[in-house]
């Protein structure tokens, strides 16, 4: 037993120095790797992580010189050029209607027929009375001629001739009255046919055939509205009175466009027809009326439309987008990119604004580049990086001369 224990102890003794040697080797390698990583990291230059010290990416737009249209916006109401409430001028039974509701009719087109029989009877009576009096007149004129011959022969007294002459004159006057009665009867008979007084579109009929219609009835038979051409009435602030009067004084017609409620579709183009003769005291606005040809029936009576009025055109104006303009404590300004690709603050004097563009009266000459996007991180003298409009990455534009 003691021999076996001694053999085992003899076998374990050589393993202890090998294990210590292996552990030491691993420790040396780990220390060497750590030192190498530290040395490599410490050899790199220190990197600046401040975003404010880097060039700011911006998108720029060139200042333009172009004609700038001063456009005024308003809400308008479409009104027909003429509206007629067609009424009957005589009373009677409505026999027939010749129009279709909602359709266009021409001037003089037959719209309806009233029973003409009673008026034909009245005409016949007037004509009969006229014929009776004509016969009496002829007889009286024959008697007068005979009396005048007898008077020349000194066969009768002059008084008889004069009395016969008076009778002839009386009958002549009666004939004139009879003719007036005949003409009146013919006129009443003509009123049994109702014609359209204007060209336009008819509305809904107020009477059906077979009904009794009264003369000059308030409701009338139907309305006709003239829609070719058609008008739009709208109002603008009195501030633009001088501009509008100057344009009208030159004999020019200001252009007007009508748009739908969403201002997505242009309905028609027209021009200012007239300015009202006074300013509305309650609203401080001036009413205008524009005329549109409306051959495609894009505008409908009493329709609400958005109006864009080209009140004035400024020739060769220096202009920039509204979004590029900034407002600060010292006034209105923009950031201009100079030849070194650095931002500079430029104070401005503004003119009119129209269609997303603003006229620059002072501060820019039309050759600069102004910042449109990326303004929030800019400051005076800040270096910038110009972003192209294309989807490619940010690139730097080299400075340009001048």
TrEMBL record:
Keywords (A to Z) from UniProt: Cell inner membrane, Cell membrane, Coiled coil, Membrane, Transmembrane, Transmembrane helix
Annotated InterPro entries: MdtA-like_b-barrel, MdtA-like_BSH, MdtA-like_HH, RND_pump_MFP, YknX-like_C
GO molecular function ontology, one term from the record: efflux transmembrane transporter activity
Multidrug resistance protein MdtA-like beta-barrel domain sequence ranges: 229-312
Domain YknX-like C-terminal permuted SH3-like residues, every copy: 318-386
All residue ranges annotated as the Multidrug resistance protein MdtA-like barrel-sandwich hybrid domain in the record: 83-225
Subcellular location field: Cell membrane
Transmembrane segments: 21-40
SUPFAM superfamilies for this protein: HlyD-like secretion proteins
Domain Multidrug resistance protein MdtA-like alpha-helical hairpin: start-end pairs: 122-192
Recorded GO CC terms: efflux pump complex
Coiled-coil ranges from the UniProt annotation: 161-188
Signal peptide: none
Cited NCBIfam families: RND_mfp (TIGR01730)
Record-stated family: Belongs to the membrane fusion protein (MFP) (TC 8.A.1) family.
PANTHER family: MULTIDRUG RESISTANCE PROTEIN MDTA
Protein name per its UniProtKB record: Membrane fusion protein, multidrug efflux system
């Amino acid at each position: 037993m003691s021999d076996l224990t001694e053999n085992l102890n003899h076998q374990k003794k050589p393993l202890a120095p090998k294990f210590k040697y292996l552990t030491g080797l691993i420790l040396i390698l780990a220390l060497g790797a750590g030192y190498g990583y530290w040395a490599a990291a410490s050899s790199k230059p220190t990197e600046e992580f401040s975003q404010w010290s880097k060039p700011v990416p911006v998108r720029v737009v060139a200042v333009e010189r172009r004609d700038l249209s001063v456009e005024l916006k308003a809400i308008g109401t479409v009104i027909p050029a003429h509206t007629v409430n067609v009424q009957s001028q005589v009373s009677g039974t409505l026999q027939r209607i010749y129009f279709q509701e909602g359709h266009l009719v021409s001037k003089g087109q037959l719209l309806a027929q009233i029973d003409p029989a009673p008026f034909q009877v009245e005409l016949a009576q007037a004509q009969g009375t006229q014929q009776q009096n004509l016969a009496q007149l002829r007889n009286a004129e024959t008697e007068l001629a005979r009396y005048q011959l007898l008077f020349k022969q000194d066969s009768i007294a002059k008084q008889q001739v004069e009395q016969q002459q008076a009778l002839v004159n009386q009958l002549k006057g009666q004939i004139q009255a009879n003719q007036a009665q005949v003409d009146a009867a013919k006129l009443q008979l003509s009123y049994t046919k109702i014609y359209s007084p204007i060209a336009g579109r008819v509305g809904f009929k107020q009477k059906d055939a077979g009904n009794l219609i009264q003369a000059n009835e308030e409701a009338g038979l139907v309305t006709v509205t003239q829609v070719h051409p058609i008008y739009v009435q709208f109002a603008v602030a009195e501030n633009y009175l001088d501009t509008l009067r100057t344009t009208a004084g030159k004999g020019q017609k200001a252009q007007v466009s009508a748009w739908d409620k969403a201002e997505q579709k242009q309905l028609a183009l027209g021009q200012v027809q007239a300015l009202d003769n006074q300013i509305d005291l309650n609203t401080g606005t001036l009413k205008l009326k524009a005329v549109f040809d409306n051959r495609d029936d894009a505008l409908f009576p009493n329709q609400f439309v958005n109006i864009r009025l080209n009140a004035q055109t400024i020739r060769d104006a220096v202009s920039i987008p509204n979004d590029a303009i900034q407002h600060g404590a010292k006034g209105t300004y923009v950031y201009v990119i100079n030849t070194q690709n650095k931002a500079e603050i430029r104070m401005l004097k503004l003119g009119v604004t129209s269609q997303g563009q603003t006229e620059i009266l002072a501060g820019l000459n039309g050759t600069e580049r102004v910042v449109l996007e990326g303004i929030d991180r800019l400051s005076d003298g800040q270096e910038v990086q110009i972003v192209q409009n294309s989807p490619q990455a940010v690139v730097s534009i080299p400075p340009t001369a001048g």
